Amino acid sequence: MWMCRMRKCILLWILLASGVFFLLTFWIKYDAALHYREIANKDWRDCLATACGGRRGMRELESAVSPHRPLPTSNSSNTNQNGSTFNKLNLLKADSSSCKELHNRMSATTPRKRYSDDYYIQTVNELQKCSWVIRPEEHEKFRSELSVCCNAVRNFIVSQNNTPLGTNMSYEVENGRTFLITQRIFKMFPQSQPFAGYPYNQCAVVGNGGILKNSACGTEIDQADFVFRCNLPPTLGNISIDVGSKTSLVTLNPSIITHRFGKLNEKRKPFVETVSHYGEAFLLLPAFSFRSNTALSFKVYHTLEAFRGKQKTIFFHPKYLKSLALFWRSKGIKVYRLSSGFMIANAAIELCKEVRLYGFWPFSKNNEGKNISHHYYDNQLPKPGIHSMPKEFYHFLKLHNKGIIKLQFGRCDIT
Fold first, then answer.
1. Is Cell wall biogenesis/degradation among the key words of this record (predicted)?
2. What are the chain's domains?
3. What is the pLDDT of residues 18-54, one digit of tens each?
4. Which of 204, 329, 396, 409 has the most beta carbons within 10 angstroms of its beta carbon?
């Protein structure tokens, strides 16, 4: 009996000793963990107070990771150089790895037959988070490609140098049709390409998209050395705040002459008054794209001559337009005809050291998802089946991504 009790007592002591040993071990490990955590916190604070950004950086990082403070939301925003807003943390992230990833992805992408509007808007919003810089080597490489295929410096405009007297001019679209350049026609052409300031330092190519409304881009546009516009757009009054008023060259579709000015049979004076708003700009017409364009384009020349207008009438060279269409067909734009805005943007890349595009937006919603008109002055949609502006816009995005041109997506800086 006594031996039995002794065994029970010994077993009890062993259990008690084991419990005490376990508690001591746990306490030592816990104390060590607290000690090393304090050392780590001290090192972290020392880093933030010196090389990692100072006390201000320490406070910002502490507040960003603190479980007692909410994380920034989409309303916590800063304004970027293009006037759009986005989260500061997203911008810092995008300016490093995200922008490189986006650049590589867009450079490697083979265009599909069609993308949704949402795809374009998402891509634009991603691009806006990345600061844009011109890349002279990429610009020169692409300019050289255009020069080899199309040579805007020599062939953009019909001139006496590139179209000798007696030439049978082939039309751009109507294959097999020609037009004899007589002495009377030959005298309409400038002796050479009329761009005396070539190469221009900075050019603005202004489309007519509804995205220009409330953009406040007018001042920036007017600061360009050469300003291209399309199809006699309005520039007077308050709208100039958004689109500017300076015009160096403006295209003119003969359909405008037909519908707005009665083919210049009785509305010659209203036409002259309208184009007078563009100062001494060049009026660029596609006289040799279709036969129906030729007589109307020549009427513009003679009307301005009769009224002593300051504007100079010039004509697209059909050889240039054909070559440009073939060049872009090889890159996936297989359309009946390129848009005039796309044509002059390509010419600008050859004629200018830096090209900025405004108002090129072929969608019914802006990049914030709000409904906008097709043009900044009306909501008239283009005829279907002639142009493919979303495809053209896709390639503009790729050129923007490479630093060859700069696309303005929204509001401009207001200084």
1. no
2. 86-128 (no CATH), 136-407 (3.90.1480.20)
3. 655 555 454 444 444 444 334 334 333 333 333 333 3
4. 204
Instruction: Write down the catalytic residue from 139, 317, 375, 387.
Output: 387
Q: Is residue 293 helix, strand or coil?
A: helix
pTM of the model: 0.76
Would you place residue 175 in the very low, low, confident or very high pLDDT band (cuts 50, 70, 90)? confident
Task: Characterize the bridge pairing of strands 85-86 and 78-79.
Answer: antiparallel
210 near 373, Cβ under 8 Å?
A: yes
Q: What is the DSSP letter of 1?
A: -
Burial class (CB in 10 A: 0-12, 13-18, 19+), 28: exposed
Strands of 226-229's sheet, edge to edge? 312-315, 282-285, 249-251, 226-229, 200-206, 352-358, 406-407
DSSP for 8-26, please give it.
Answer: HHHHHHHHHHHHHHHHHHH
| Measured distance CA(229)–CA(278) in Å, rounded | 10
C-alpha to C-alpha distance for 338 and 321, rounded to whole angstroms: 9
Q: Work out the number of other CB atoms within 10 angstroms of the CB of residue 293.
A: 22
Kindly compute the dihedral angle of the four CA atoms of residues 209, 215, 216, 217, in this order, to the nearest 10 degrees. Answer: -50
Active site annotation includes 387: yes
CA distance 365 to 121: 9
Q: At what angle do helices 340-351 and 136-149 cross, to 10 degrees?
A: 110
Number of neighbours of residue 187 by Cβ within 10 angstroms: 9
At residue 55, the 3 state secondary structure works out as: helix
Which three-class secondary structure state does DSSP give residue 116?
Answer: coil
- For 364, the 3-state DSSP assignment is coil
The alpha carbon torsion through 117, 123, 125, 127 (nearest 10 deg) reads -150
Report which DSSP code applies to 276: G
